[in-house]
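Archive transcription. Copying these from loose printouts into the bound notebook so they stop getting lost. Printout 1 of 2:
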Amino acid sequence: MKKTKRLYFLLICVSTSLASCGVVENKDNSSPNNENEELIIEVIIESNASYASDLEVEINSRNSPQTVNELSIEVPYSKTFVIPTDAAFPISSTKVKATAGEDGDRISCKILYDEIEVATHDSEGELATAVCENKFIDNILSYQ
């Protein structure tokens, strides 16, 4: 019964978000603005260590999935990904994971979609590991 209620809730959320999407006419007959044709995802890692290890970045996109795996990176670290938005629901999730280097005890990660922070995590302690994740359903639920 709980699974059925969750499924109905998810369907209502998706239906509501689709119904609230509007169409805007371009009245001046100029070419469409390219701002909405791509999603800019930025991943940021910061630490009090000189490096971070075991970096994993997963961009789960319908048309442009991307992955980064690095044994060691200099911090602060930032990487930008460009995702085309020409498909319905172009991105399903983004996940970032990194561990502070041995010379530090703090690490943080952030995920930005078009310069808006959608996930963040701070971790402290020996072998501190920060994990950030943003799922498509999180975006739907945050707008209600």
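Printout 2 of 2:
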Amino acid sequence: MDSKEIIKIREQAELARKEGRNEKAMSLMKEYLSLVHPSFTHYCWFFIAEILLEKNKITEALEHCDEALRIMKDFIPGLELRIKIHKSMGNFPEAKKDQTTIDDIQAREKKKWDDPNHYYHYK
């Protein structure tokens, strides 16, 4: 299968999600996951975690969210979703830890943008 076909599978998953066909969306995204290198899949795991949370499958949602964050530890949407999951489980200390992580990431990024010598400002 060529890369265009693989990308089309991901796009079909996203379209199915928008149309409310969540089972189909998860199925297509899992197929996509089986076809791509894991280093590019944090968004896919997050995508599935969101659907699972909507379906009130909290434990599975947390597992998928954890996988997204294992791949990309600074993935703020994943951390935000995990906060929501932890709160729904009554696990407020873990939610607080994730919020602290987000705050740290944002502070680091702000510091880079505030530094006129940082490479972010080079053209």
